[in-house]
Amino acid sequence: MRSTAMGQYRSVQHNLSKASSRVDRLYLQATTGEKFRLASDNPSAVGTVLSSRSGITMQERHMENIATAQDRMNSADSYLGSAENVMQRLTEITTAALNGSASQADLTTYAKEVVTLKEQLLDVANAQVDGKYLFAGFNDQIVPFSGDPVVYGGTTDTKWIESGPGETVQSNLTGDVLFIAPVDVFGEVDALEAALLTGDSAVLDEKLATLEQAAEQIRSQRGILGSNNARLDDSLVLLEDAQLQLQSTLSCYEDADLTQVVSEMAQAEQALEAALAVSSRIASLSLLDYL
After folding, report:
1. pLDDT tens digits, one per residue of 5-38
2. Of 43, 144, 149, 185, which is most buried by a Cβ count within 10 Å?
3. CATH code where residue 146 lies
């Protein structure tokens, strides 16, 4: 009889401990909003949770890369828009100078404006963002364009960013392809100024064609930049969609359903109260109860 009583007592104590642990676990879920906090709480979910978290971290890194690159690319695009405006004005000046009614005084005035426009173009070529020169390649701590005549001191290296798993996109333009080759933009501007000062209509006529080539050189490179920026926009959309899916998966495994938790908690508390009542009754039994 003693053995039977002891067995019953241990069984009740086990059920009491189990019910108490369940209540504690549900209280913790209600407080933290998490289904589990330790790997031992749900071993089968650990692999999926770790994989989802790793994926989210990787997506965030790619998104940060894109945001940083697009800030610089948008700035570069704005500067190149200004360069196109300068080239448009240089073409207008050349066209006006070829008008037979322009006097030498007019041509001299135009030449002075060309000097100013060249300075504006040089400012664009040496544009900076966060202390780094936009069109200097890898040598972005040193002024890329300087001297008289203007020469390029940057590198020809292109920068690439990882915009997604196994995907890279060029994020910069170098000054050589924009302003030096195949058309030396600054050289053409210098030649235009000289032709205006001498009134050389043959050279002015030639410059009209080469200035258009120079403008097209800048336009085409700006188009490449815009295309790459659009690719980054597409990559960003894909990354955001992928991140939402991973967050949804993570939520399924980690986030507690509070409505369900409250319901289960009520049931667990009833089970605990029942276990306590049984334990109390067994503890109050005396030897005489078994005789």
Report:
1. 555 556 655 565 655 555 555 455 556 555 555 5
2. 185
3. 1.20.1330.10
